[in-house]
Amino acid sequence: MRKSSLSTLVLTCSLLLSGQSWARDYQFTDAHLHYLDFFQETEGMAKLFSAMDQAKVQQAMLSGIPVAKKWDEDEPKQPRYYAGDDGDVYWYSATDFILAEAIQQLPPKQQQRLHPFLSGFNPSDKNAAQHIRNLLDTHPKFWQGIGEVFLRHDDVTALTLGRTPRANNEAMYKVYRVAEEYDLPVLLHSNITSKREPEPIYLTEMEQVLKDHPRVRFIWAHAGTSLEIHRRQQQLEFLPETLSKLLANYPNLTLDLSWSLVDPYLIDQSTGLPNEQWVQLVEQYPERFVLGSDLVGKFGSLEKTLASFTPFLDALSEETAQKVATDNFLNLLPQWVSQAKKH
Questions:
Q1: Do the bridges between strand 186-189 and strand 218-220 make them parallel or antiparallel, or are there none, so unpaired?
Q2: 120-135 core/surface letters (b: 16 or more CB in 10 A; e: else)
Q3: Is residue 13 part of a domain?
Q4: Which range marks the domain in which residue 55 is found?
Q5: What is the pTM of this model?
Q6: Residue 178 lies in a domain
Q7: For 309-330, what is each residue's pLDDT tens digit?
Q8: Angle, to 10 degrees, between the axis of helix 170-182 and the axis of helix 128-138?
Q9: CA-to-CA distance for 71 and 39, rounded, in angstroms?
Q10: Residue 111 domain-assigned (yes or no)
Q11: Total domain count for the chain?
């Protein structure tokens, strides 16, 4: 057994003997949840709230999906996912209007549990900033963030017509200026590398953004990874050290641990135990990580998805686990959100 695995085993056994892991009752804030899927369909608010209650999710970030999957004329069967066939995906601005309408029909107490992020814009279009501004003005004190913005996103990018969006292109710089003006956090999906390269070839794009916009609070979806990268490369060996340097240098960066981070990073698949290197990283920066389910339009697996984080949370100190599971995301929201809750 490797030294790191042995250390983690000792930590886990200690928690079990003390009863600490059993005593913890996590109340989650889901920091990454999509109301709609890639066909702009959803199970609806009733099922969403039922799943949230079952999973002990008190509050959730909620967004649409910025693209829609085309059912191509030459395909005899409708695809079930964006990668189901070679049909295109295209930018879909109506996703924000569908989401806003669904939330505004809810009772006030349910509305207060949701934190809507707008996402329906083309991030390579320099008109996107004005589109966002129009939505913010149309729905004042409603939108609480921007994202998930699809930038470098392997197969999604490959299926999307037009220029590949980058985190540091001119169109997105206009978006960041709007985010700063309205005090909005920005959730970016920007892969740190491609499916085949074992080095962070796109890191400079994110790093430039973090450096150039120090007053914008950035959430990096999946810490720059994706399932497609892992299917080709298993683990990115450089990832923990690279992320540690970014967190040290850029206080405006928060890392989202959703989707592709549990396996193979947070939990060592060879032992089933929390990865000590990641435990140490989160403990070093306890206010810079958030958890999310990253479900898209269907919510039945919400409890199981969030429960997959429990062994990792149990390996953290109780204070850090509370911050990661619940508090950190809420602290990224605009100040007016917390002020509104007080009234």
A1: parallel
A2: bbbbbbeebbebbbeb
A3: no
A4: 28-341
A5: 0.92
A6: yes
A7: 999 999 999 999 999 999 999 9
A8: 20
A9: 9
A10: yes
A11: 1
